[in-house]
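ENTRY TYPE: paired fold submission
RECORD: A
CONTENT: sequence, then structure tokens
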Amino acid sequence: MRLIALLSLSVSAVAELLRPNGISLSLNGTNYFLSPSVQGTLPKSLTPATIAADSLAFVPITIVSNNTAEKDLPKLFKSWAQKDDVWQPAFSELVVLLKSPGCKSTTTTFNNGIKSAVSCWHKAPEIPPGPYFLDPYRGSLHQVYRLYDDFSGSFLESILQSPDGTFQTLSAHAPGSSSVTIGVPSRLYFTRTKEKPLAGVRVGVKDLYDLKGVKSSRGNRAWYNLYPAANKTAPAIQNLIDAGAVIVGTQKLSQFANGENPTADWVSYLAPFNPRGDGYQGPSSSSSGAGASVASYPWLDLAVGSDTGGSIRGPAGVSGVFGNRPTHGLVSLDNVMPLSPKMDTAGFLTRDPEIWSAAQAAMYKKNYTTFSKDKAKYPRTVYTAGFPANDTPEGAILHQFANDLADFLATNVTEYNISQHWASAGPKSIRNTPLTELLNVTYAALITKQQISLVKEPFFKDYAVAHDGRTPYIDPAPSARWAWGESQPDSLLNDAIHNKTIFMDWFNQNVLPKDKDSQRCSSSILLYTQGPGIFSRRDVYLDPPSVPFGWSLSRISIFSEAPDSVYPIGEVSQFSEITGRNESLPVSVNIMVARGCDGLVPRLAEDLVGLGLLKIPKTGKSMSGGSILF
């Protein structure tokens, strides 16, 4: 008896250490992953006799929600096949109708020619409709994830979101050139509601946001192997989860969110592949995985990035997708690796303005200005700054967009030069100092001084303790920046904050002030461009990385704290020396509005799409689609 008791105790102790990771299998040539969580238990009386109860194989099954009659199934399945990439007709060999009035178990053949056993579960619990795999021995129903190859190298890790709010690695691999496979759940499991506006929206997350139960790299191999999994999910991401979003993986970033070029700078990890054009263009940085994935994968709806000095806007521009750097401070950045808290923001990249708007409302909550679905009031002034000449292909696209926008707003386009405006109407005590001089080292000082104290110093200390006083490897870009920052006096940080504040106050009062009408919110719109449709090959060896000095239009928003977003507006044809053919490259425009008027931008995008002045970009080698070149 004692031996039996000890054996029982031992087995029980081992069982507590076991954690199911799910199972992967193939159905009709498509690779799937079975969630380890049980969604429900099917009564054995509903399992056809043809399915052996002691079978070790899982059985594909379709659950149909309440009040659906058998006669409606062909039409229902046709609509499912169109809107969901996970369900397929092979799941209809066994169909279970939940609480269907007048339902009788039968055998039938649907339009797809598959002979189906239809069972009726009259006293069923609430189970989302869609595809499942049934364990016939236990009767357990498991939700299904379709597996996709991360061929663009955008993801660091595939994530399975657990019902208890934690995450675990999705342990599966589908055939493909990538070492990472991403699993996505059926869209049929989710219904968007007022409470869950992002229900079922598939999201990739930049690997500087903490996810409970997941290890992070911050773009550095030593960091990934030094620190344990996070014990809390970043509030910015939790807001999305609370709104129904499904996190499918963590995405690559340039190291510690510093700007990097693919060929020599990305040492710890390979830079993601931008799918546009010839397939060998740089993805920009630092939200590189976010931009490349949204442009590559139709199965991904949204990517969360961060923008300190252009880390969302740059990737959005070269990828030909929508992206936003929001008003600074809209959401807590607790449990997020900082580059510079004075400038760090959390934003999105996506192909769909409607999802873009819903995601911003979910993440920023009460700080987000949502505009009515009724006819919106828009700013009455449109400024353009730094556009290329109208006689260039990219210039023609930009000027045409500006003119179309002005026509829609019933106004005119006004060319704007911020340097001249500053010289004539800047603060009297400092207007004689050009912006190129006043703000030359501001960005560099803020990102180096703040990241050294908040990231580098604790990281080096922890690494030294773990590795007998050694120092970790750091990529060339952050290494060069940190070295410069450490060589500068501490007073430089205060000077940078002071100069940033001077510019911020002036810009928000004199260039993009809020409108007195709260429904209009912003008095003006400022357009400029970072994405002029030029090649930026990933295989070119550049000079060693340097400190990011200087002033440019893209730094207006980081110093003023006003929102700055990207619209993809067209493409230009450029000759590729790689393919020997002309290839299409995106042209994008940056659109700025007054601080706190963020909701104006996606709402305007939705209206412009409705008018045909903007197009929803597709995935592929161009914004209009097409097979990606490898």
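RECORD: B
CONTENT: sequence, then structure tokens
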Amino acid sequence: MKKMLTAIPREILNDLQYNLIDVKLHQRNVLNRSDFILLNSYSKNEEKVEMLMELMRNKSEEDHENFLEIMEEDYDWIRDKCEIFFQKIRLDALQKKTNSCPVNALPENPESVEVKKQTETTEESDRSVHTSSSPDSCALPPRAEKENIPSDVKKTEETVSANCEIINKKLDQTITNEMMTKVRRNHRVVKRWSTLAHSLGMTPVVHILRQRMVTNGEDVDACVLHLLEEWKGAHPKKATLGRLVTVLREDGFNDVADELEGTYAA
């Protein structure tokens, strides 16, 4: 198939499963009957996704918003990439209508500049927090010269060092069924379990687990349990408590991350 959308990030073509969102797109009138028939005429998922994004070029801003809402429900890690793509589409359309200067010469919207600054500040703050509070490491401050360290300080350092070693060993333990159950019971994780799957490097199993849930008549929380079991089976050395806690924090599931750390690594 001839590639038409060179601007589409590869992540969208790789991660987005058209068959998981086609019904929602049709229900929200983002796709009409002709679009639906056209897209289903392709056999490969990447071809369907590529054609879908090509069709979105001619859709309204309201359709774009509905599309992004669907992405936020099931594919929030690529939602922003889709939003940027739609913004470029609208800028291109505006440029053609006004026959004005090139897109890269357009002045930035003051509100966009302010949002960008706030985002950069937030990201920098988040990086600082993650760097300083990562559960995968437990480091001591630089030691002073031995001859200048009082005996009580030495004992304190030795105690802290011993505690850190114990904590690190606990964080290195392989996740257990009990830990998986705690994650499964968190309603926020259940709602966004596909995001957790992506962060764990298990995106390819999302479609399989959804099909299993429907076939077996299971609740959505079962997908969380099956996901963690699949992760443990595929990456037994990486499937540790420390890694799970880190990923949960990165995805914003701090409540269950704190619970796991407090219960099994304290």
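NOTES ON RECORD B: Residues 68 and 79 are 6 Å apart (CA to CA). Confidence is low (pLDDT under 50) at residues 1-6, 129-134.
STATUS: closed
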